[in-house]
Design a protein that fits this description.
With about 325 residues, the chain is α/β, with parallel strands linked by helices. The protein contains twelve helices and 15 strands. Helix content is about 35%, strand content about 30%. Strands 6-7-8-3-9-10-15 form a seven-stranded mixed sheet, sandwiched between helices. Strands 2-1-4-5 form a four-stranded antiparallel sheet. The chain has a four-stranded antiparallel sheet with strand order 12-13-11-14, covered by helices on one side.
Length: about 325
């Protein structure tokens, strides 16, 4: 649905986007991440035909953004960080206006307005002035204007920025409902939103692509070794934290033991293994043989924040991007 090859954008001496390539399959929700100044907004503006690339190509829904920009625009719904709404207009009035701008016929305009108002839960405010709506409802109106012409591709820039937790959940639910019918690129600084909403992530830094993969796969590759959270409790009395830590550190294959918490005689540790070593069985055996209760043992993954910080460091930005294995791409192509 979206194919970017060697995309580059230069402003005088500044390179905003530096030779990036990626693909997004039909129906996917993809998180587009990067620190401020990484080139996210520039890339999104190129995909939506607001900016021409300096070099490389971008193809959306089968059309080139340079050679067929009008066709691309017909097939894209775009929500910038600040929703392009008119506060002096009523919701239905505004959506009708936008629908006509986007070429919806007079015979279909009412049904399309009713449809997007239903999808975006705007029925209760359809007759209200947009300027009187909460920010959450204005975001909904912004999404409604992006999908009113039923485009196959949606490009959303910070759709949950500034919303309260309840509004964020509502927008997240809406985006999941739109997936499948629409291919969605979601740019956000709220990393938890990517974990909840996106199937894959694309991360850029300093204009360069540094990763394309699922959050789970990135966690496994960057971690490299096994990490286990373990909670220990003495059968009689409180175990000495130092004794427990030293006993765990003596296990073959353990590289590091970190004390995380201590409460009511329960000690929580995070234990990391050496590369390629499996330590869970030895951990359990050691705890039980030492006369302690093993209350909990679970795998610990990197958070998306950890992944983001590792990949967007200045050193990582110059490395070859982390990509999904070839077989994974081929499966996506078959779909």
């Amino acid at each position: 649905m979206i194919k970017v090859e060697g995309l580059t954008k230069r402003y005088a001496r500044n390179v905003a986007v530096d030779n990036i390539s990626f693909e997004v399959d039909k129906g996917q929700i993809v998180g587009f991440l990067g620190p401020n100044g990484a080139g996210k907004t520039t890339t999104m503006r190129i995909l939506t035909c607001f900016l021409p690339p300096t070099a490389g190509s971008a193809n959306v829904a089968g059309f080139d953004v340079l050679a067929d920009s009008l066709e691309v625009k017909k097939r894209i719904g775009y929500l910038p960080e600040t929703p392009p709404v008119y506060p002096e207009m009523e919701v239905s009035e505004y959506l009708t206006f936008v629908g006509r701008l986007k070429g919806i016929s007079s015979g279909n305009i009412k049904s399309r307005v009713d449809d997007v108002e239903g999808k975006c839960a705007l029925g209760d405010v359809r007759g209200k002035l947009i300027g009187q709506l909460s920010k959450g409802y204005r975001q909904r109106v912004g999404i409604a204007q992006a999908i009113i012409h039923n485009p196959p591709v949606l490009v959303l820039d910070e759709p949950t920025s500034g919303l309260d937790p309840k509004q964020i959940i509502e927008i997240r639910t809406l985006l999941k409902a739109l997936a499948g019918e629409h291919t969605i690129i979601l740019s956000t600084h709220i990393l938890s939103e990517v974990e909840h909403s996106c199937e894959r992530v694309i991360i850029i830094s300093h204009g360069k692509l540094v990763a394309i993969d699922s959050v789970a796969n990135l966690t496994n590759r960057l971690r490299g070794a096994e990490a286990v959270a373990i909670e220990v409790q003495a059968l009689d009395g409180k175990p000495n934290p130092t004794d427990v830590q030293q006993r765990l550190e003596q296990i073959s294959g353990v590289s590091r033991v970190m004390m995380k918490d201590s409460k009511d005689g329960r000690l929580l540790f995070e234990v990391e293994s050496l590369q390629g070593r499996q330590i869970r069985a030895d951990l359990a055996r050691t705890v039980v043989n030492s006369g302690w209760n093993l209350n909990e043992m679970r795998s610990v993954g990197l958070s998306l924040e950890d992944i983001f910080l590792q990949l967007t460091s200045a050193e990582k930005a110059t490395d070859k991007p982390i990509e999904a294995p070839q077989e994974k791409k081929e499966e996506g192509d078959k779909k």
